[in-house]
Amino acid sequence: MKRRAQILVSRALVQGTLAAGVFLGGVVPATAADSGSRDDLRAALATPQDIMEGKRVAEASCASCHGLNGIGKSKDTDMPNIAGQRPAYLYRELRVYQIGGRGNTPMNNAVKFLSDDALVKVAAYYANVDPAQPAASAGTKAGPAKPDPLSAGKAAASGCAGCHGDTGISSTPGMPNLVGLDPKYVVAAVKAYKGGQRKNDMMKTLVSAVTDAELDNIALYFALQKPGKAKTPSPGNQAAGKSAAVACAGCHGEGGVSTGTAPSLAGQDAQYFVAAMKSYKDGTRSEAAMKAPAASVDDGTIKNLAAYYANQMPHQPTVRKPLTTEELAQRCDRCHGVGGNSTDPRAPALAAQRADYLQRVMHAYQKGERKSTAMTAMLDGLGDADIEGLAAHYSRQKARAVIYMPLPSK
Ligand code: HEC
Ligand code: HEC
Ligand code: HEC
Ligand code: HEC
Q: Nearest Cα to 86, choosing from 118, 127, 50?
């Protein structure tokens, strides 16, 4: 047991003035909250004597699972590293387990009969053990960093580029532009080919092996490319097409830039456009909304509409570029410290924690099985890939112990 690394000297710790604030985010059991923030910090301000006594508690009650070194064995996939974890956080979690606020039978049983004093001391003991290093934790799961959704989409879209163009701008007559389309529409269209609701044997075969996750990434990739008109011929009278398009603008938007659920038509390949209208007319593409508009226009008008729309500039649909793992982690670091090395004794360190454990608890927050207002809000809207990326990221960070020292008051 070595005391090393940063020394955090904080007047607030001594004076016990740290407000309950965000860290207590609704998870602290009433009893712990009653004891006040000064009590919560007892484990952070433990004496060497307390730590020695804590070690004896650990030997008797914890070491069988956590070891005296507090580092989970790689085969125990649900065992977190607790070595070097922040003391006030450890103490608080032990109390949460004690009252069953965090349901885990082995842990609930392990702390059931321990006194408050024992919990403070054992928390102080593990907080002062050297933390795990990334090599050990990364070995538990985190492989190399996964590509972000956009790069993954680009790679997967290379299989579509031959017909739809590298960036979704078609240069082959009959091949639709995919740029400028709402990703939800692209996803639905591909699923309709797969499921046979939209009949096109070639597209069905081409997309049969594309997974849903890949499809989401592909659609995102095309949506975020610089929009451009199809580089294909568009015979027909644009001015006449423009007048006819007045009837379509309610759904397809001014200039074919849709703001609703109907697809954008701006910049669309003219030959594909004509074929699509034919298929609505003859019923091979059965979409209730398009039945009447398609029936109302003759072949000449369709050609003019196609020419008009092909020459309108598509817009980039409104989709947010997803944050990369690094960008997400910057938000987490605000509370969890730079590289997951929290300097607040109440906020858990994440650095060099096992990836499998991190992933599991983040899902538990998302499902509401583990309760924390702060964490539920932070993980809101993150997908499985984001969670996996963050878990891998933190498991690879170097863990730094922090020593909390009371500062003599003036
Ligand atoms: C029978 C095995 C077992 C024993 C004994 C045990 N633990 Fe645990 N501990 C676990 C498991 C499994 C988890 C993961 C539980 C979860 O996901 O909520 C855990 C989780 C924890 C956590 C939560 C870590 C975090 O980052 O939130 C702390 C803290 C902890 N244990 C400390 C202790 C201490 C201190 C003792 C002794 C008083 C102890 N444990 C005894 C199995 C055990
Ligand atoms: C061999 C050429 C070819 C390849 C490769 C190809 N497509 Fe297509 N795609 C077409 C054709 C032709 C159509 C028009 C089919 C129709 O008339 O319904 C089409 C239609 C579509 C549509 C409907 C567009 C709209 O405006 O409704 C989407 C979406 C689509 N493809 C996505 C993809 C994706 C994603 C890939 C790659 C995984 C892909 N395509 C690969 C030729 C191709
Ligand atoms: C009531 C709303 C509505 C009106 C009015 C309407 N559309 Fe549509 N249109 C849609 C919807 C919804 C779709 C998507 C249908 C599908 O997925 O097959 C669509 C699809 C299309 C498509 C296929 C686009 C593609 O990428 O495959 C074309 C072309 C089209 N409409 C042209 C027109 C034209 C031209 C008019 C005016 C004469 C018109 N629409 C009027 C709702 C409308
Ligand atoms: C506003 C402050 C705040 C932010 C920002 C924040 N967290 Fe937390 N986090 C907390 C608190 C407080 C806890 C302890 C909650 C509890 O008691 O369960 C926690 C707990 C965790 C835990 C459980 C640690 C353990 O050892 O069991 C993980 C994992 C975690 N956060 C990951 C993240 C990630 C990833 C982000 C960014 C997406 C993030 N946090 C952003 C405050 C924050």
A: 127
The answer to whether residues 185 and 259 touch, using CB atoms and an 8 Å cutoff, is no
- Is 306 in contact with 270 (CB distance < 8 Å)? yes
Each residue's pLDDT, cut to its tens digit, for the chain (410 residues) gives 444 333 443 333 333 333 333 333 333 333 433 344 556 789 999 999 999 999 999 999 999 999 999 998 767 777 999 999 999 999 999 999 999 999 899 999 999 999 999 999 999 999 999 999 886 555 455 455 667 788 899 999 999 999 999 999 999 999 999 999 999 999 999 999 999 999 999 999 999 999 998 999 999 999 999 999 999 999 999 999 999 999 999 999 999 999 999 999 999 999 999 999 999 999 999 889 999 999 999 999 999 999 999 999 999 998 888 888 999 999 999 999 999 999 999 999 999 999 999 999 999 999 999 999 999 999 998 988 899 999 999 999 999 988 787 666 54
C-beta of 263 in contact with ligand 3 (< 6 A): yes
Tokens coding 385: 């890939």
Question: What are the tokens at 233?
Answer: 């011929």
Q: 303 CB under 6 A from ligand 3?
A: no
Q: Specify whether the CB–CB gap between 124 and 56 falls below 8 A.
A: no
Pocket around ligand 4: residues whose beta carbon is below 6 Å from it? 22-23, 25, 27, 80, 328, 331-332, 334-336, 347-348, 350, 353, 358, 361-362, 370, 372, 374-375, 378-379, 390
Q: How far apart are CA 392 and CA 397, in angstroms?
A: 9
Burial-class residue 3 by CB neighbours within 10 Å (0-12, 13-18, 19+).
exposed
Ligand nearest the Cα atom of residue 243: 3
Is 252 in contact with 204 (CB distance < 8 Å)?
no
